[in-house]
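Sample entry (540 residues):
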Amino acid sequence: MIFPLVVDRVLADRPLAEVGRSVITVVAPAGTHLVIGGHDPVSREDGYPIGVYTAAAREKEASSVEGDSRVLRWLRTQQPLRAAAFHPTEPLLVLGTGSYDGGYFFEGQLALVNLVSGEIRYLLADDCSREVRSLEWRDAHTLRLLVAPPDDWEDRAAWSEGHQVDITHPNWQAFPERSLAQKNVIGPRVPAPRHEPTPPMAGPQRDGRSGEIRSLTTLPDRDLLVTADHIVLERWSAAGERRWSLPVGSDLRGGRLAVVIDDSSAWVEALGHRLGEGGDFIRVDLAKGIERERHTTPEPAALVSTSQGPLLVPMPAGHDERVRSLFRHGPYALFRETSGLPCTCECPWDDDENCECQCACPQCSIEGGDQEAWLTTIDGDPTGDPARLAFAAEERCRRLVPWSWEPGEIHCGGPGAWITETDLIMATVRHDGWVGVPKQGFVTRRAIGKVSTGIPTWVFRINRTPTALDIDVASGTVLVALRGGELISLDATTGALRARGHVTVRGVPVIPTALTITGPGQFLLGTSDARVLTCHLKPT
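Predicted structure, serialized as C-alpha cells:
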C-alpha cells in the first residue's frame, strides 16, 4: 500500500540512488540488463536493496537525474546479494544472497526473478537457509551453485570451502517454490573463499553520499539543516540548492542532531568511529559551513535541546540507536535516564549471552536487572550561556515517570514530540532480547504533569522500530516513520489509524529515517539512501 502523499521535490537525488552504495553489479551476457546489489543497511529490518535495470541505466549515470530510467524490478532481501546469473535463453534471473550471522551460521537464499512478470520465487526450503557464494548457468536447464556449509561449528574450513551443486530442471519458469531441501544442496567440497564484495560501480556514491539522513531542522529563512551518516552537517536553500556541506573526517563518521544556537551557529552531535568512547560535538558556522569549535566528552553523551540552549546528557551503552531519545516542540528538555551500578568486571560483554558472571555490562546496561529507565527533565537555567555546551547540573535533572509504563518491561529509546505542555506522543520498542522482526513496539500518548502517573491515554501497536516522529498540529495528525519503510499517520487525540503505507520515488519504496513537519499537510522526509523528500499530504 502506498502512503497518501505527493513528493514535490527530491534533494540530493542522483541516478541509481535507491541502491545506495553498490557492492556488486552483474551484467546480462547480451548486455541488455544489469542487476545491482546495494549496501549493507544500518538495520537488518530494512532489508538489502537489489535493483534490476536496463543496460541503458549505466550509460545514464553521468546524465541528468531526470533522464534516468526507472528500475525494472526491485526487491529487498534478508541477506546481501552475493551472486547473480541471467538465464541464457529465458527472461529469468537467479539471485544468491547470504551472510555470516556473527555466531555460527552462513545463512542465505536463492531467488528466481521473472523479468517479464516480476514474479519472485524463493527456492530454498524454510529449513534450508544457506549462503550462496556463486552462480553459473551450465546450459538452459542446469544451474551450478556454490553454497557455504551450514555453519563453522568445528568446521573452520567453512570460510574457505563450499558445496558445488548442479540443479537441473526441464522448465525453470515453473520451478517449484521452496522445493530445495538440505539434501539437494549437498555436493563435493571445493575451494570457495568467502570474499566480502567490493563496490565495482562508482555511480551511486560518486558524490560521497552513502548512509542515512539522521535529522532535518528548518531555519527561520526556510533553509534546511541536514545531518547524516556521510556528513556532519549540510545547509540547503528553500529552493533545493545545497549551500555548503561539512564532510566527515578521519575521526568522525557522521552527524546525529543539530541544535541551532542563534542566527550564526549550531551545535551538532557527531558520531565517532568507535562506540562507547566519549562524544564529539561540533559548533558549526551557519554562514560558511565550517567548524568553529569542538567539545569532547570522556564518556558517551547525547545532545538535547532546551529553551535556554543545548545541553549534554549521559548516553548509556555509547551511541547505540536503541537507547537514544529525541523530543521536540516542548517547553523543556526530556531525555531517557538509566540508573544502576556500572559493570566493573572484565567479562566479554560483546558476547553477553555467554557471560558467566551475569553482570550488567555496558552493551546490555539498559536491560540489566539493576537498571531502571526514567523519563527525566532538565529544569531551565536562565542565567546560562546558550552557546556554552555542558552537562546539566545534577540538581537540575528531575525524574518524572518511569520510561516504561508497564512494570517489569524494558522499553528502549525512540522519537517523540510534545502535543501540549503536559502531554507527549512518543514511540518506543519493548526489548526482550529478540533482535528479529516483528518487533513489539508502541506509539503512545502520555501525560507527564506533576500529578501524572505516565499511564498512556492511548497505545497504538507497531511491529517495527520507529525512526522518526512529528506532529501536524493544524490537523491533529501524528506521523511516524518505521524501519522497513512504512509511514503511518494517527489521530493525535484518539490514536486511531488514519493511513499507513510506503513512500515511493520513481516507483521504488524508500526507507524514511528522519521526518519534520514544515506546515499544515507539509513535511520533509530523510531517507536511508541519503536523499531528502519535500512532501505534502493528498487531500481526502
